[in-house]
Amino acid sequence: MSDKKRTEIAELGEFGLIDHLTEGFQPKNKSTLKGVGDDAAVIAAGRDDAVVVTTDTLLEGIDFDLTYFPLKHLGYKAVTVGVSDVLAMNAIPEQITISLGVSSKMSVEALKDLYEGIEFACNELGVDLVGGDTSASMTGLVINITAVGRAKRKAITYRSGAQFNDLICITGNLGAAYMGLQLLEREKRVLHDMEHPEPQFKGYEYLLQRYLKPRARKDIIEVLAEEKIVPTSMIDISDGLSSEVLQICKAAKCGARIYLDRIPIAKQTTALAEEMHADPVVAALNGGEEYELLFTVPLAMQEQVMRLGLVDIIGHITRETAGAYLVTPDGSDINLRAQGFKE
Amino acid sequence: MSDKKRTEIAELGEFGLIDHLTEGFQPKNKSTLKGVGDDAAVIAAGRDDAVVVTTDTLLEGIDFDLTYFPLKHLGYKAVTVGVSDVLAMNAIPEQITISLGVSSKMSVEALKDLYEGIEFACNELGVDLVGGDTSASMTGLVINITAVGRAKRKAITYRSGAQFNDLICITGNLGAAYMGLQLLEREKRVLHDMEHPEPQFKGYEYLLQRYLKPRARKDIIEVLAEEKIVPTSMIDISDGLSSEVLQICKAAKCGARIYLDRIPIAKQTTALAEEMHADPVVAALNGGEEYELLFTVPLAMQEQVMRLGLVDIIGHITRETAGAYLVTPDGSDINLRAQGFKE
Predict the structure, then answer these.
(1) A31, A64, A232, B203: which has the fewest Cβ within 10 Å?
(2) Is A97's CB within 8 Å of B150's CB?
(3) What sign for the dihedral angle of Cα B182, B184, B185, B187?
């Protein structure tokens, strides 16, 4: 190996890495309607329907810290993580599988807590747990979730569908989960050596809930279907708003303009950011794990979308050559940048 | 937590653990044709077809040792592990997703090797890589593979389908992958301190190949389809023959008799076992990761199955009350026992 070239993963970044590793993989089966490059793969099922499949891995020490993450919440969140990618295809989640790696230090009761959270989320979302396995882990807890959903083929929303002049819409508000994590990390540092730690969370319960028990926005997909709105593109906010907008721009070969003062940010998010001398807009732009949905609709649907009362219009799609920008209230343009490989 | 009961995972064993964790999970969607409890979940797709979905996680230090496992082989094997569960449903694998956790120590070139093995296996099996993600791992390499396949609903083989008097059939031979692993572990111990280790593998190449680069038996599923043989039940050998026979007995509420002298064992397996003062039959009964297929067919199909030339008939299904036994050449019956939780 010594005379071989060695490239660090950080040089490519997460998305560059996946592109590099999967280049040359060409779908061979006619049932593969969409392979890599979206929130989920799309597989033919009957003449008009499709099944979407997506998989995610959550690793202890990277994606969650068991010193403050209750296992019941973690189980719930794992389901949200998987199902959110299904929803982002405008599909209805129906099945999940859970594959665990657990250290022998973990008790059966602890795992039961994890599964109670999984079951709670499954019941809330109408999803069936249909499989999985459990094996020993040398190190920390490893949770893999595969989620399967279903949609009419013509209703499926691909990232690549965004068109010039489309409106960019976002559900809920952003930065809350990120600030929830900051709060938990702060209290962990502060209370590190105490025998009976009493963390101070008062006034920020919403932020904790958004980080520890985020809801998958199935309600949005249902409302869009009722209103017969098929977005031109959609993605969920798992890596941060900037990163997701750039993913749509890359897939649809377009540009985007996002208006800073239109980005929805909750009061608690702003309050905690100020208390921690952080910028709430940075939290909203770069904070991942929000599981809100970002989607685009034709300009003509502006009123219809606003009437839903569930969505903010934060910008619009431009030509690819125009680039992807955040527009500040004073009118300056800031290049949107994606977060790098999480380490 | 201090006054809560604490049950060790080892007390329940792997299968008992999964049963315990998933009890109370009832499928709610009519598209869920089969949930937990088989090699893969079965999901409706069109009126006559079904999609099967299965997921597995491979953990460094548990499922593979990178000191002797070439990454290209590991990629190949990961595909085999996933696809084998699809085949065991009598379905044809069509798509996989790969989700990785990688430490920053790993170079892009190393990951490219892993993906070359994945691509090689995908091409050999006619399978499309349709998704996945890569995230940082604090510890070792984590590989999750989800495999999706397709079959006519009426062709799907469930473990529960085995009937009284059915013949128990096995493809290939058993214990080879297990002895391959023993050989690699022995050479690792012996060469531990050497600067230029030269492991001695001569004469045992087949065993190494069976452990490092096992083939998924898609050929068997194709031949069975050509011959219009639909097994009454099927399972792949991932945890060992004894364990798999017991799984079928449990699902089908039946007993089984396996004849020791009918179990196919390769010459190299026997030779290495003797050299290492081990029992080749124990390797064949308990050795996992063989990825051969174990299936049952009605007694009337005996000649048809034997004519395939690809399968050994090693026993038959009995009443549940008769239990599950290994019958030795001298006529004594030994209770079949499953391996415990891998630690």
Answers:
(1) B203
(2) no
(3) positive
A59 touches chain B (CB under 8 A): yes
In this prediction, residues B64-81 reach a mean pLDDT of 97
Compute the distance between CA of residue A10 and CA of residue A310 in angstroms, rounded to an integer.
38
**pLDDT band of B339, cuts 50, 70, 90:** low
CB-based contact, A251 to chain B, within 8 Å: no
Question: Does the beta-carbon distance from A57 to B133 stay under 8 Å?
Answer: yes
Query: Is B62 touching A (CB cutoff 8 A)?
Result: yes
What mean pLDDT is predicted for residues A215-235?
97
Find chain B residues with C-beta within 8 A of A53's C-beta: 53, 95, 97, 130-131, 146, 148
Which of A21, A46, A148 has its CB closest to that of B111? Answer: A21
Check pLDDT > 50 for residue A322.
Answer: yes
- Residues of chain A positioned with their CB less than 8 A from the CB of B96: none
In the prediction, which pLDDT does A341 show?
38
B79 touches B125 (CB < 8 A) = yes
Number of neighbours of residue B1 by Cβ within 10 angstroms? 7
Give the Cβ contact number of residue A109 at 10 Å: 13
Residue A298, pLDDT above cutoff 70: yes
In this predicted structure, what is the pLDDT of residue A3? 57
On the 0-12 / 13-18 / 19+ scale of CB atoms within 10 A, A66 is: middle
Contacts of B341 in chain A (CB under 8 A): 136
What is the token pair recorded at A176? 């809350």
The pLDDT mean for chain A works out to: 93
DSSP state of B167: E
Pair B116, B129: CB distance under 8 Å: no
Partner B contacted by A18 (CB < 8 A): yes
CB contact, 8 Å: A340 with chain B? no
List, for residues B93-139, the tens digit of each pLDDT value. Answer: 999 999 999 988 899 999 999 999 999 999 999 999 999 888 888 87
Question: Which of chain A's residues have a Cβ under 8 Å away from the Cβ of B103?
Answer: none
Nearest residue of B to residue A125 by CA position?
Answer: B28
The full set of domains in chain A, from first to last, is: 9-155 (3.30.1330.10), 159-335 (3.90.650.10)
Query: Who among B10, B60, B136 is closest to A62 (CB)?
Result: B136
pLDDT of residue B1: 44
**CA-to-CA distance for B331 and B254, rounded, in angstroms?**
21
pTM of the predicted protein model: 0.93
- For the record, the structure tokens of A268 come out as 């608690």
